[in-house]
Amino acid sequence: MGSMNLPVKTPRSLMPKIPAAAQLRADVLAGLVVALALIPEAIAFSLIAGVDPRVGLYASFVMAVSIAFLGGRPAMISAATGAMALVAAPLSTEYGVDYLIAATVLAGLVQIALGLLGVAKLMRFVPPSVMTGFINALAILIFLSQVPYLTDGDVPVYVMVAIGLGIIFGLPYLTKLVPAPLVAIVVLTVAAVAMGISTRTVGDEGELPETVPVPLIPDVPFTWDTLTLIAPYALTLALVGLMESLMTAKVVDDRTETTSNHGREARGQGIANVLVGFFGGMAGCAMIGQTMINVSSGARTRVSTFLAGAFLLVLCVGLGDIVGMIPMAALVAVMIFVSIVTFDWHSIAPATLRRMPWSETLVMVVTVAVVVATHNLAIGVVVGVLVSMVSFARRAATQADVTSVLDPDGGTRVYSVNGELFFASTGELVNRFDYTEQGLDRVVIDMSDAHVWDSSAVAALDQISEHFRRHGVKMEITGLNEPSQKLHEELSGTLTGGH
User: In what order do the strands lie in the sheet with 412-421?
Assistant: First the structure.
């Protein structure tokens, strides 16, 4: 019986399978923890954007619930974020919340278009060193965002944070049936109320909504002037949101050893932001902090994302008075834990730094420094990618080499070119040949181990040919691979005047 070459399907996950009931419990409890952590964050981001806290809370609810169905990365949490709030702040401050809502809808439409155009494929151009810098910078920003709660606090705050961290890190050694962050929040809240400890609470952060969001249309003139006003903000929101979401999805892919559909995620983020805008919310995207809480609590499915949004609405509208009593110290402990587990400690270990090329470490450090300095993840990632590109070009430029041998008859010299030939590596290539060697009739340039990438390389080859021609030596190029041969045929002679 003949054999069939069946395609090998890569396992979706290398992690051990968890019983359905246990996974559902983990998703439900993780969603509750995330919802509690979302409340102060959404309120804070609303204040950054200069809008009512309800704008951020409604956005977080709609975003989380819709992306659970539309997104391509299960267990990832999307909601109102600080980066998006910073981009939107000038618009809402100067022109009002309706213009912010209109920009949110337009940003969603732009994200849908970019998703359809395959923007997610650009993730392949983000080097691992930039990803590491992105993760470490996020961890630092998460920690720094909690510092004001510590510096403005007193002794009870420090004690509660310490106890919370002790529970979060210690409880998993006893049991993993309940997420340790949830236990820490409950224990510290009960203790604070029972002991009458006066400390900053969630209710102090801002007024929680008392009604569910309803659909609306932003009250802005539907004119060309309005479009030109909100378009720059919408485009920036779309790009920042997609970059953060796709980077966060990649982090979760690596942490959970699963794959996700980044193209679907890009489109889903766009549709979700359109819905957010029509429900009166501000633009949102994936949140690394809340996502890591979710994943660290055992969540792996879309149920956790949906319930995070659903619990958020129930907690704010139905249980606002109880939620308002949660001490901020409890949530600070949770976020500090998130920053610790998010940071890639292996990347700064002495053994790693000794083995890692200095250029890779530089890219990581630059990415971290720019993100922390600007509080803008998009700028940091772009700068990191640019530094990585320059570093790569520098390395590639030094790898082009030329060797030669003389034919036994003495009339032909064979030069062998090895390496990648492009604008950065061809500057010295012309000077690597001896044009005045006596007795030569013919020169052969063997390109079997080289690749011609751009017009600069073709121009260099033309210049070399011209130098040999001036000295009465015939030059022949051999060994070009098909792409290099095609490029050489198309451009040779057109860049140096031709002869």
Answer: 401-406, 412-421, 442-452, 474-478
Cα(477)–Cα(25) distance, integer angstroms:
68
Question: pLDDT digit of tens for each residue in the chain (499 aa)?
Answer: 343 343 333 344 444 567 888 899 999 999 999 998 888 888 878 877 878 888 989 999 999 999 999 999 999 999 998 778 878 888 998 999 999 999 999 999 999 999 999 888 877 778 888 888 888 887 888 788 888 888 877 888 999 999 999 999 998 898 877 888 888 888 999 999 999 888 888 888 777 888 889 999 999 999 999 999 999 999 989 988 998 898 899 889 988 888 889 999 999 999 999 999 999 999 999 998 889 889 988 899 999 999 999 999 998 888 888 888 888 888 888 888 878 887 888 888 888 888 888 888 899 999 999 988 887 777 888 898 899 888 877 776 666 788 889 888 778 999 999 888 888 777 778 888 988 888 888 999 999 989 998 888 898 899 899 999 898 899 999 999 999 999 888 887 655 444 4
Angle subtended by helix axes 288-296 and 20-49, to nearest 10? 160
Token readout for 437 is 């060697």
Report how far Cα 255 is from the mean position of its chain's Cα atoms: 14
Please state, in angstroms and rounded to a whole number, the distance separating the CA atoms of residues 402 and 387. 28
Distances (CA, A) of 78 to 87, 204, 241, 242, 270: 17, 24, 10, 11, 12
Q: Which residue has the tokens 């940091």?
A: 380
Provide the phi-psi class of 419: left if phi over 0, else alpha when psi is between -120 and 50, else beta.
left
Angle subtended at Cα 293 by Cα 40 and Cα 39, rounded to the nearest 5 degrees: 15
DSSP state string for 96-114: -HHHHHHHHHHHHHHHHHH
| C-beta separation of 42 from 57 below 8 A | yes
Contacts by 163-168, CB closer than 8 A, 24 or more apart: 163/187, 163/188, 163/333, 164/188, 164/329, 164/330, 164/332, 164/333, 164/334, 165/333, 165/336, 165/337, 167/333, 168/333, 168/334, 168/337
Q: Is the whole model's pTM more than 0.85, yes or no?
A: no
Residue 141 backbone dihedrals phi, psi, to 5 degrees: -65, -40
Taking the C-alpha atoms of residue 74 and residue 343, their distance in angstroms, rounded to an integer, is 22
Q: Is 351 exposed, middle or buried (0-12, 13-18, 19+ CB in 10 A)?
A: exposed
Q: How many CA atoms lie within 13 A of 171 on its CB side?
A: 18
